[in-house]
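We emphasize that the prediction below concerns an isolated chain of 159 residues; any contacts that depend on oligomerization or on bound cofactors are therefore not represented. The input was used exactly as deposited, without trimming of termini.
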Amino acid sequence: MTLKYTWEDYQEKYRDTVESWLDSEARHGLGIDDSWQQYYDYWLSDELTKLGENFWCKVILNGSEPIAAIAVFLSESAATLYVSEFVVACGNRGHGIGSRILSEFLANSEIITGVNADEAEALIYLDNVPSERAFIKAGFEYSHTHPDGDARIYKYCKK
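Result of the prediction step, given as a token string:
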């Protein structure tokens, strides 16, 4: 299948670009306290994290332009992909690009990660309405409120 977007592994050459997307709006909706690079380094330092096996960090390009970044974990049962973080470049927000990227990822997870997972899950903070809209438009459905009460869990199942 031909993909609309190019999915590249996150690497040093994208560091400044991805960091520039973490404006106050993006930080408000993400679980990243400091920087994307620190988030990435933190997970890579965890002995259970295996880059390319149970953790992927991708930069999504439209042509040669980076437009988004996503971090995804695989559940221990290898049945569910967890979208841990997802950020769209500032100028591309509000145009449906996030939902299109998520839809492409869900339809092509095996091409993008090497794992054909039939289920995906995402935690979205209560006041992050743009993310909720993007995930719902991509096929996720509300599942339940996180026990902390500050976020909702959305699930996707291939049909």
